[in-house]
Structures are given as C-alpha cells and as structure tokens.
TrEMBL record:
Region Disordered: start-end pairs: 226-248
Transmembrane is among the record's keywords: yes
Keyword field: Membrane, Transmembrane, Transmembrane helix
All copies of domain HPP transmembrane region, residue ranges: 51-211
Natural source organism: Bimuria novae-zelandiae CBS 107.79
InterPro entries in the cross-refs: HPP (IPR007065), TM_HPP (IPR058581)
Ranges annotated as spanning the membrane: 52-73, 113-132, 139-161, 181-203
Highest taxon, organism lineage: Eukaryota
Official protein name in the record: HPP-domain-containing protein
Amino acid sequence: MASMIRRAETWNMDLDRYINRIVPPSPLHRLPSPISRFLGYRKEQRQDIGNVLGAFWSFMGAFCGLAVIAAVFNNTGSIQMHRPPVLIASFGASAVLEYNAIRSPLGQPRNALLGHTFSTIIGVSITKLFLYHSEFEKVRWIAGAISCGVASAVMLLTGTVHPPGGASAVLAATSPEITEMGWYFVGLVMWGTTLMLIVGLVINNIQRQFPMYWWTPLPLRETRRDDVEVGPTGDGGLEEKDPDLQEDGPQITVSAAGVMLPENLALNSEEAKLLEQLRVRLGRKQSAPSERSVSSGSTVNMTMVPSHTASNLEGDIVR
C-alpha cells in the first residue's frame, strides 16, 4: 500500500502531449498588423505597463466587460425567458483575471472558456442527479460542494484551471434561479465568457497585450519537431523517427562502414567475431544492390552514439 502511494505521487496526465501534435501553429503573424495586434500577437515581447496605468485599464476592462454582458443578457428576449440573474456572480471573478492579471495562465482564453464550460456542465449534471432526492433543498449544499470538487479536479487534469469556473459549478447547484435553467445555463456561461474575451481583446490591447497565448505558451511547431528524432536508414541515409518507437538505453550499431559500441562496453572474442561478420556481410550487400532483401524504404531502428568503431573491437575483447 505504501509503495503504491509513493508511485502515485509521480503520476501525471498530460493531455497536451497528444493534443498539441494536431493543433495547428498560430496563424496570427500572417494577419495584417492592426488585426493581429488586437488578437494578442507581438513581434517582440515587451514588459507590462506600470500598476498605475494597469489599474486604470483593469477598471475600464471590468466595467466594460460586465456592462456588455449585462446589457446583452437583459435585452435579449430568448435569454430573459429563462429568468437569469441580473449578472452571473462568477463573471465578477473572471473579470479580475481577464482585465487585471492578464498575464496569468489562469485567465488565458483556453482556461477561461473551457474552465467555465467544463465546470458548468459538471455542476448542472450533478445537480440534476441530486434533484431526484425527495428533499433536495436539504442536500443542495452537498451538490454544490461535490460540483466544485469535481470541476476543480477536471480543470487540473485538462490544463484548463480557471478559479471562477468553480463558482459557476457551485451556482448551478445552490442558486434556485440557475438550477431552474438547467442545461441552458451552460450555453449562457459560454456566451458570457465569449463576450468577456472579446472586450478583453479590445481594452487590454490598447497599451497591454492579451492574450499571451490562445492555446499553449509552447511553440506548437517546435513542440511537434521535438516529438521527432532522426535516425539512420538501411541504405545509409537519415529519416525521422517517432520517439515512442525508440528503445531506451545504450545500443550497438552495425553498418558496412563499421561498428559503433557504447562507451565502456567490453566484448569477448566470440562477440567481436560475430559483429565483424555482420559488418562484412553488410558491406557485401551494399556492393550488390540487386541481392538486397530489404527494400529501400525500410529502416534500422537504432541510435548512433559516439563510441568505438570496428577497428577498436580487438581492444575491447575481454580475455
């Protein structure tokens, strides 16, 4: 049991390792400058402005963002049919991240939109399950606590942590008017978060930069490049190899040009003779392409390492 707990301390679930391979690199640098600027792109990163101007733009952003959301919600007939609150409380917490701590990863578009979305889906789902209880009002607080806990865990595992999302999950269970809205609350929060991000793109990019990134701070093109290793092919060339197919640890490479051994590896006479025979055989096949039994597209799955060559084999023999 103790060993399992120790192993669990090292467990990590990194979805980005797989998702980032298919996410296209940002196209913002190709857009006209006035457009790319208000989408957060900068050719050179600059230090943020001082806190005096920062406080001013934080005030302007929070005021404009929440005002836009309230104006849209309270003047849209289809929304008013569901009798929503004047302003969803969790948007106030989001406003602090979206317009104040704009360099924090917690307030970037991915975290804001997906964090709120996942949390509201979880909050509504758990609340609907609790509604089957005959005395729901007495256990409503339990639904809110469970909703927040599950939402927090899901946001962490998906890399979408956005603290106001936890408030959205709690509201789905504890606010009667929001509980009555049901699944409509999910769409409402997504729409409000989108409006808040749009206002942020305008207000925050006048003298500041927002967002710092849309999906990940890692350069996606380089990330995918790092996922690929280069190794030798059977005909003496090089090709890209998936690192998931590579084996860890030192390896021996035999080619017509010589034999590469890991450092500090000693061979006996029989091992040295076997490797020399393989080298000679490869040399003969290279000189007679028509007799090769391996197609030109096949590869040899091994890694070239700086080490000994065939000429040094005899010195490695253990007598």
